[in-house]
Each structure stands twice: as structure tokens, then as C-alpha cells.
């Protein structure tokens, strides 16, 4: 009986925690400045034709911009540099 009550109270506490976080910006979200800088870099002729994976690898190695390939793909679609 005690274990069941503990699990139920734990579930309610978790639900309260997520309710408090709703509507807030993620801690992992990259700055808009980083996004703009990355898109300016991608518009150069050297990077023409790069896909999201290759662009993410080049940004990490040459420009010290670390973003996941899915993030890069989303940015490229928003910047009209990639078609989904």
C-alpha cells in the first residue's frame, strides 16, 4: 500500500514540475545570434549545395558553432537554403 501511494505522489510531483515549465524557453535552445551567424556563413558560395549534416560538421570544425543536424536542417529550411 505504501509503495502505491509513493508512486502516485511521485507522479503528481512530476506533473506539477512539468506544469511549471510550460511556456518557457528551453535551456538547450541556441541564441538567435548564433542562428543568424550560421545562416550568413551558409550563404557563402563555398557552402552552396551543403546538406544539413555536412554543414553541421563544417560549422563545428571551422567556425566553432555546435548545433545538431536536425537543428541545422530546421534553420536551413527557414532560411530557404534547403527543401524538406
Strand and helix layout:
Blueprint: H1 2-21, H2 32-42, H3 52-63, H4 69-78
Report on this model:
The chain has helices spanning 2-21, 32-42, 52-63, 69-78. It is mainly alpha-helical and 84 residues long. It contains four helices and no strands. The mean pLDDT is 81.
Task: Offer a concise description of the structure.
The chain is mainly alpha-helical and 84 residues long. It contains 4 helices and no strands. Helix 3 (52-63) crosses helix 4.
Net shape: elongated
H/E element order:
HHHH
Mean pLDDT across all residues, rounded? 81
Q: Strand pairing plus helix content: what structural class? A: mainly alpha
Oligomeric state of the chains in view = single chain
Strand content: under 5%
Low-pLDDT segments? none
Keywords, please?
single chain, 84 residues, mainly alpha, 4 helices, elongated
